[in-house]
Amino acid sequence: MNLKTFWQYFFYSFAILLVTEIQLGALPAMPGVLAYTDVAIIFLLVVLVLYDVTTAFYFGLMLGIIFDVLNFWSFGQAVIGIEVVLVVCYILLTKVFTNRSLYSFLALTLIATVVYWLAIRITDITTGFVFSAPSHLFFNPVALRLLGWKIGLNLITSAITFQIATFISHSLKPVFLMKSNYVNR
Amino acid sequence: MKKLNSKRLSLIGAVIALLLFLHYSRLLLPVEGFMSQIFNPLTQRLYGATSHLRFFYEEQTDRRDLNQTVKDLEKQVSALTQENAKLKLLDEENQSLRNYLKFLQPRSRHYVMANVIGREDVDQISQIIILDKGKQDGVLSGYAVVNENGHIVGKVLETKDHEAQVCLVTSGRCQLAVAIQNQNRTIGIAKGELGLVVKVDFIPQSEQIEKDQTVITSGLEKSIERGLVVGKITEVIKQNNELWQTARVEPLVNPDNLLTVAVMQP
Known about the structure:
The complex is a heterodimer of chains A (185) and B (266). Chain A is 74% helix and 0% strand. Chain A is mostly helical. Chain A has a single domain (3-174), classed as Arp2/3 complex 21 kDa subunit ARPC3. The mean pLDDT of chain A is 81. Chain B is α+β, with helices and mostly antiparallel strands and 266 residues long. Chain B has two helices and twelve strands, in the order ααββββββββββββ. In chain B, a hairpin with a 4-residue loop joins strand 4 (152-159) and strand 5. The longest helix of chain B is centred in the first third of the chain and has 76 residues, at 29-104.
């Protein structure tokens, strides 16, 4: 392993550790509905859109395993949910969305949030059914309100993340196309 | 965008399946324990640090709620104070009317109840009050005005259709035919002095009058019946070289407390 690869893996590990700590340590203690934000999903979307598909899937695998180990839900729920989200987003990104603008990123966030929520709910109910654990109704009002908050918060977070990413990377298009940037090229 | 290698996707799927198998067969427990040992202290610290932010937010929210509660309560107190003042006024009025009934009903007198709606105390001496009843209500000039205890308050000076001007007994404009409750039932003319007391003039020197004797209306006036209490004698002014003697009388009515009065009809 050369030095570059070492630093690359070090950076990956640090990113996973940071996202895990934000998602499991910082966010649950946040006031009000801020605790419902899915930072991990947005992080994976950024990696998927901006960086590399394979890396996003590996990151998803790592984060999913860590969440499953550290959380008290049924093992496999997080890792399966995250990988399903990544598969769906990857298909949409290659087949549906033609560019990488803010709007496509927000649409991707919306779909990812709903898919992740559905995946967690489905696995929750399935494991509840299999292990006779108490499971809730699929579409109860509380869960739907939670989904609403999640969508709103995730969209805001992803919009902010996208704006920051446009400053760092040239792979994304800014919200408003500046005429001067394109005319004289 | 790079395409996802299906082999890698299969590999990821296989890893997940293997992990599930290892977990549910309890073979993954040592690894899970190790991971918990690494992440838990960090998570715990971060949670603690972020909790301060939540506590601060909740404290601010509580404070805002408390401020709102205080504002609401202040409004409520203000409204209740206003209501209380109104009720006290009504209670006072009710008490006063009950007293009037005690005085007026047993003697089956004719009377008109009136509210005091104003004063004309320009010089603090004139001692004039305005009533909300006038000619149309049967109130005419010269009629006696009494309080709830039957003490004479004053006399109607002028009337309009629905208003009457009343001079209080302490007014210089108010003259009453009175009698002193002594042995001879001495009569005289009572007139207000400086808006403070009542002076009874033209009492013959031969009459025996003393301090604390009660002064009442004499009934010599056409519109005012006999027996309405004016006040008590506080001072007798008697000089040997004078033809008449004078008595100072302190009225038993405090004109400042008048809200409702009765106008006595003959």
